[in-house]
Amino acid sequence: MVKKQRPINLQLQTIHFPVTAIASILHRVSGVITFVAVGILLWLLGLSLSSLEGFQYATEIMHSFFIKFIIWGVLTALIYHICGGLRHMLMDFGFIGESLLVGRISAIAAFIITAILSILAGVFVW
Ligand code: HEM
């Protein structure tokens, strides 16, 4: 029989992901984006090396805002993936421990470092 007085929590404002969960989800998402990006970047490299016309076309493509935005997004995903990856490795090798506090602090550190490097990547692309 179902307990009538069982606790329920449908107040959506009180339910939220912990910062470590967000860091983990973003690490997977950034890994998949990086994987797809390898194909796009290899295509662009192949195009630029194919001929003079190919190189000029690749240069032309790189002038468009949309492509610049994609490249910036790819760089940001790669930056986060590397920050998150280094965080995992520091924890796995036992350099910073595996406590919840370390997990939280290192996740926030990865976000802040990614934000700073992402701005620099934007300056580099534009
Ligand atoms: C072409 C470059 C890369 C691609 C396509 C890629 C892709 C991926 C993908 C798809 C995952 C699985 C994520 C998951 O299942 O949650 C992963 C995990 C991982 N990646 Fe990368 N990665 C790349 C480069 C790197 C680099 C440079 C580092 C080093 C900082 C790194 C560190 C890691 C680590 C430590 C994990 C395991 C995370 C865990 O245990 O949950 N990756 N990567």
Tell me the layout of helices and strands:
Elements: H1 19-50, H2 52-61, H3 65-92, H4 100-125
Bound molecules: protoporphyrin IX containing FE.
Residues 27-28, 31-32, 34-35, 38, 81-82, 85-86, 88-89 line the site of protoporphyrin IX containing FE.
Subunit structure: Part of an enzyme complex containing four subunits: a flavoprotein, an iron-sulfur protein, plus two membrane-anchoring proteins, SdhC and SdhD. The complex can form homotrimers.
Function: Membrane-anchoring subunit of succinate dehydrogenase (SDH).
Protein name: Succinate dehydrogenase cytochrome b556 subunit
Write up what this structure looks like.
The chain is an all-alpha fold. It has 4 helices and no strands. Helix 1 packs antiparallel against helix 2. The termini are far apart. The mean pLDDT is 94. Protoporphyrin IX containing FE (HEM) binds next to helix 1 and helix 3.
> What structural class do you assign from the helix and strand content?
mainly alpha
Q: Can you tell me the residue ranges where pLDDT is under 50 for at least 5 consecutive residues?
A: none
Ends distance: 64 Å
Q: What is the succession of H and E elements?
A: HHHH
Shape, per Cα inertia axes: elongated
Task: Tell me roughly what share of residues is in helical segments.
Answer: over 70%
How many β-strand runs? 0
User: From the alpha-carbon coordinates, what is the Rg to the nearest angstrom?
Assistant: 21 Å
Keyword list:
4 helices, mainly alpha, binds protoporphyrin IX containing FE, 126 residues, elongated
Summarize the structure.
This protein is mainly alpha-helical and 126 residues long. Helix content is 76%, strand content 0%.
